[in-house]
Model the fold of this input.
Amino acid sequence: MPAPLHPQEDLLLVVDPQPTFMDLCPDELPVPGAEAVIPVINRILAGPIARAVVTQDWHHPRHLSFASQHPGRAPLDQVETPYGPQVLWPDHGVRATPGAAIHSALDQAKVVLVLRKGFRPTIDSYSAFRENDRKTGTGLAEWLRAVGVRRLFIAGITRPYCVDWTAEDAAALGFETWLVEDACARLGPLEALDASRRRLAAAGIHFTTASALI
Ligand SMILES: [Zn+2]
Done:
């Protein structure tokens, strides 16, 4: 159970609440149940949490993570890149398309920053803090420190990818990190989620639910 919320030190980080990851966009990268996390996130935002940041997957139309850019390859294949292995995905989150917008039902009243990630054509970015080369920073950690944030609650789409990578980096960067499990969508087998959850717990990340924040 997290300690009571503090208006300046606490922030809700909402990862990729975009139609491209929902049944609204069946030809992009729909994640089962993803749209259902929006009302859960809105309930948290209606509670005592004072500030939120939203990330937005924002890809070049020929982004390296798209299977369509690798002849003979299919989504979920893995390719080698200069920064290491990269899983391929269907085209999704293409900048300035309807699917890449922030979901229209998300309550943005407390959203003080929208961070676009994955905009470099040749590097993917799961984490909100570092791109997949694990070197290129997004500036988010510095921004959070500048505004006095000490503790992060993380929700959104999708575990164990963008959400879990973001949580892992947040903890490594010194933020007290809580993953709001019922406010997250999941892609892939439960075994992969369990393995990621064990890794996050070992890294000092805490787990909670939306009701604990309301
Ligand atoms: Zn993406």
